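Teaching assistant here, posting this on the class forum so everyone can see the example we discussed in section. The complex has two components, and the goal was to see what a joint structure prediction looks like when all of them are supplied at once.
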Amino acid sequence: MTMPFMRPPKKNPILRTRVPTLPPWTRSRVALGLTAAAAVGRFELQSCDDCGTVQYPPRESCHQCLSIALRWSPESGEGQLLSETRLHHSNDLFFRERLPWRLGLVQLASGPTLMVHLHGDVPAAPCAVRVGARLDRAGQAVLIAFPAEETPHMADDPQLREMTCDPRHRKVLVTDGKTAVGQALVRALAKAGADLVWVGEAEPWKKSPGLDALSDLPCVTRVPLDLTDERSVLQLAGELGGKVDILVNNAEVHRPFGISARRGTEAARAEMDVNYFGLLRLAQGFGPAMRARGADGQAGATAWVNLLSVYALSNFPPHGTYSASKAAALSAAQCLRAEMRAGGIRVVNVFPGPIDDEWNQTLPPPKLSAEGVASAIVRALRDGVEDVFPGDVAQEWFERWRESPKTLERELAQGGT
Amino acid sequence: MAADNPLLALVTALASGRIRIVDLTQTLTPEFPQITLPPEFGQCWPFRIEEVSHYDERGPAWYWNNFSCGEHTGTHFDAPIHWISGRDLPNNSVDTIAVENFVAPACVIDCSGEAAADADFLLTVPFVEAWEAKHGRIPPKSWVLMRTDWSKRTDPAAYQNFDETGQHTPGPDADVVRFLVEERDVLGFGSEAIGTDAGQGYHLRPPYPCHSLMHGAGRYGLQCLSNLDQLPPTGAVLICPPLKIRKGSGSPLRVLAMVET
């Protein structure tokens, strides 16, 4: 039975901070299909269009009939644990530091036999298990077998924790506490057991009653943070950058215009200054210390969350400049993800559809509530997902985008339907 | 010799300390608040500064910065073209205003007690007349500076003083602006708060009277001034040339006051 994850003891400041190491991360091009699915929280294996055989490991042609018509398809993960191995020695630095480590051989109901990580609550073989795909600290897909039935404190299994970014007992910075989403995030993170939540506040003279109300939460501290001001970002990073375990960048500027509906570039610049350059300033300020603390104890630095928009994938012309700024932010976030990988820090990109706020007032429902966005972010951290599409609109647009970006572009040009 | 050479007399007086220079300028920093309009309007950029190099790999022997701001950021000058009422006047932008106007005497009206008691304090004609009874009539082509000690509010939230009904900062009422323009022929009006108009100036008639009437009459504005408590009621001379921006509606500037000691 998994022991609940207790608040770790204070760090001994005279000992060297453990340097992050990564599990093996090279994958063939075809094997990255497993990662692409796991990145959005799915477990997929290739199946053969000609003979129906499910494939493992990922390959170029069917191991039964040699057909090359292999298609990535959702996999339920139900199977039988055949045998177990407990590693007590490894020459790989990452596993060497985390021994012992349970591995198992699982035969899926759909056919293939897999080598998987074993959750601590999986009983001795033979037994029924459910295999899922997760991203490891290197950001690559790995498979882990869970017990067939939920067990208490399942998320606290030490092996599973190496694949997730649970906010419990971690210190979190939310970059903008003035928005409804920011306030919902702070509440959700506090409820999820975050040790401390720092809440950024720009332009303090523009008061926000919702932000005042957050002061009721004992774990919350308001901090001055203005993403348009390099000095403000660097000052806060200097003061507490070495303590931030999860950074949630929810600060954004959103003005609902296309190109021709608003003269000049003042509003578009303001969007870029926060949505794109703000991310750059934050990354330069907070990135290095977080990257260095990716293996700092049981609840060290683990994740960087960007609140983007589903409009980052394809421009929504009525909100055209905002879409462009979010596309720029997405591109920067991909760069950040590559740079943070060395520290094992997961960069989570969140792509909500329209949020029910004043700047989307004239858009028809369905619109996402602030609480909906916040709970999707907390869930993504717990599940270790890196691309999140909260809400029906975002889910639907994402599927349409995967199917045909050009078709979606044309549809959005006609108003989105 | 000094007696018949006024410039020499001036520099001699400066060197001897008989004339002192007071800096009336707020330091440009990212923390200093900018004027805040409803979010659907375009906004004045706050002051922002980023390092180009600091004797480092970006420039081994030199330190310098890039900065950005609006024409109306920090201590700044308002030209008549800033307001729609002044848009068709001749020489109404910072690049065309006659430079003689950038050196002028100032009358300082102390409203600091009233502003401390009431953030929405409005300067009125009787208040100015009472001031004139003590200090003499405001001479033509003078600046009128409203001292409120508002610049001593170093916390941006207190300086801006917003609540649910908007901003609460002192300024002139509509009648006194008309009086200063028509009866006293002033050069312009200066204030310590974020604007020459009161925080609630939108609700006056006309809205924003100091902008509407002063600029409509070709007069100027100075805002975000500081150290007005170091100036005498009369006798100070301001030096306040704005940047020469083509068709500029205003500009951040250094405002200096010469004061006899």
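For the discussion questions: The first helix of chain A runs from residue 32 to 39. The first strand of chain A starts at residue 44 and ends at 48. Think about how each of these relates to the inputs above.
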